[in-house]
Design goal:
It contains 4 helices and 11 strands, in the order βββαββαβαβββββα. By secondary structure, it is an alpha+beta fold. It has a domain of 118 residues: 4-Layer Sandwich (Nitrilase/N-carbamoyl-D-aminoacid amidohydrolase). The strands form 3 sheets. The chain has a 6-stranded mixed beta sheet, covered by helices on one side. A hairpin with a 5-residue loop joins strand 10 and strand 11. The longest helix has 14 residues. It starts with a strand and ends in an 8-residue tail after the last helix. The model has no long low-confidence stretch (mean pLDDT 93).
């Protein structure tokens, strides 16, 4: 297992919105820098990351995406192509974006055939109100565990193997079209 924490990370003259995954033995497994900065305020404070963070977690291929990163299907698809089985997504999503944990995360998991553990803040900080709503979604899109607006610890068993007939075939079946008539 691992601990996941978010922090501002200084790299030379820049600061990144980062998340670390550390093993129970204290080994750094992954250090992700947020790719999709949300709004002008975050862009003023942080420099966007430019790469994915993929690592081994208990014998499974895992990745970290931070907050807004997990809402972009191209990022999820790219990680799936790299063989990622589970995405760890620490977030600080605020009201009124409850739909992300309720709908977007399970849909991303289902559409791309990988599991996502989405851990959101809850409560208030300064002028922001965080809705909680942490969720663990399996590769078939089924919600394995979810939280309400209050602090909670989620425990879920993320299966290593799914019946292929229950998983999305969108990547294989996708047929691009030209907009030119």
């Amino acid at each position: 297992m691992c601990d996941l924490c978010r922090l501002p990370e200084r790299a030379g003259d820049t600061i990144h919105n980062a998340a670390l995954c550390v093993s129970a033995e204290g080994e750094l497994l992954g250090n992700h820098r947020k790719i999709q900065l949300y709004g002008p305020e975050e862009a003023k404070r942080f420099t966007a990351g430019a790469r994915y963070t993929v690592f081994d977690l208990a014998g499974r291929k895992a990745a970290i995406l931070i907050c807004y990163d997990v809402e972009f299907a191209p990022h999820i698809a790219a990680l799936k192509r790299r063989g990622v089985e589970i995405i760890l997504a620490p977030t600080a999503a605020m009201d009124p974006f409850e739909h992300v944990g309720e709908h977007v995360v399970p849909a991303m998991a289902a559409n791309h055939g990988l599991s996502i553990a989405y851990a959101n803040l809850c409560g208030t900080e300064a002028h922001l109100s965080y809705f909680g709503g942490s969720v663990v979604a399996g590769a078939d899109g089924k919600v394995l565990a979810s939280a309400g607006r209050s602090p909670a610890m989620l425990l879920a068993t993320v299966r290593a193997c799914y019946d292929p007939t229950t998983l999305s075939t969108q990547e294989r079946d996708f047929r691009p079209v030209s907009d030119e008539a």
